[in-house]
# Entry
Amino acid sequence: MTEEKKIIFSGMQPSGLITLGNYLGALNNWTKLQNDYHCLYCIVDMHAITVRQDPIKLRKQAKELLLQYLAVGLDPEKNIIYYQSHVPQHAELAWILNCYTYMGELNRMTQFKEKSLSHADNINAGLFTYPVLMAADILLYQTDLVPVGEDQRQHLELARDIANRFNGVYGEVFKIPEGYIGKVGARVMALQEPTKKMSKSDENKNNTIALLDEPNVIMNKIKRAMTDSDNEVRYSDEKPGIKNLLNIYCAVTGVSIESAEKEFTHAGYGVFKKAVGEAVVAKLQPIQQKVKELEKNQDYIDTVIKEGAEKAGKMAYKTLQKVQKKVGFPTRVR
Ligand code: TYM
# Structure
C-alpha cells in the first residue's frame, strides 16, 4: 500500500446473516477496489447494538462476518480489516461530532424513522445518533471514497455536511468523502415484496438470500419470488419482481440488462428463474467453501483481527489527535 493511493472506508453491521443485497451492493464492489485503493473494511459491531442483540449471537455474527469478508476475497495484506469496537477512536470522535450535528438533521434520517417504527419499544439515543458514529467512522481515516448501497446515501451526505461544518470552523481537518454507489446491485429488493429492500433483519427469510444459504434453498427462494402474470421478462418499474431478478442476474453474471432481456424475453418465468438461481448459486458456492476452510484456521483469523485493529488504530489516532487539539482539549503529557 503506497501513500499516494486514495483511501476507502466502508463497513457492515453484524446484525444478522448477510444477504445477497449486502454482497451485490457492497462486498462485491469492495473486492474490486482493493488493488487500486488503500481500503479499510470494518465490522461495525458498535452500530449493531442500536437495536437489542443477543450477546452470544452478536459475537458469533461478528466472527461470521469477518470470515465472509475474507471468503469473498478481501485480502488482509492489502486491506485493513477490523472490528469497530477494537478501535476506541471511533467512539471518541463520534462524541465530538455529536456536538457539531443538529437534532433537526438527525430527525430527517429515513433509517431512523423506519427503525423507530420497527423498534418502537426501544427508540434509544444511539439509534438517533447512529449517523454521527457513521460519520466518525468515515472521517477518522481521511477517507476519499465510501462504497455503499443506495440506502446509505443519506447518511453519507450527512457525514459530508458534518465534515464541511467542522472544517468551516477549524480549517481543513477532514477530507470530504465521496460516495461510490455501483450501477448494478446498489438496491437489491426483497424477493417476496420487491418494492422494499432486501434486509438482513427481515423476519421473512423467503425475502432474503443469505450468502451462506444452501444451493437448494437459494433455488427454492428464487422460484417462489414474487413476479407478475404476463410471463414476459422485461426490465420495467411496472414489473418490480422481474426487474429485481434481472438486476440480480446481471450483477452476478456481469451480463448487461439489454442482453439478459434479449436472452429471456420469451423464455417464460420458470426458465428465467432457474437461470437466475443457478447463476446465484455459482457465484456463492466458492464463497461458502472458503468460509468452511477459514473456520478451521483460528490462528490465522486471530492474527487478522489483531493486526487490523493495530493498523486502523494508528491511522485513527492521527486524526483524533488533530481534532482534539482543534477543539481545545489539553495536550496529553507522555
Ligand atoms: P448495513 O450493514 O445495513 O449494510 C452493509 C452494506 O450493504 C448495503 N446494502 C445493500 N445494497 C444493495 N441492496 C440491498 N438490499 C442492501 N442492503 C444493504 C448497504 O448500503 C451497505 O453498504 N450504516 C451502515 C454501516 C456503516 C457504514 C459506515 C458504511 C457504518 N459505518 C461507514 C459505510 C461507511 C449499514 O447499516 O450498513
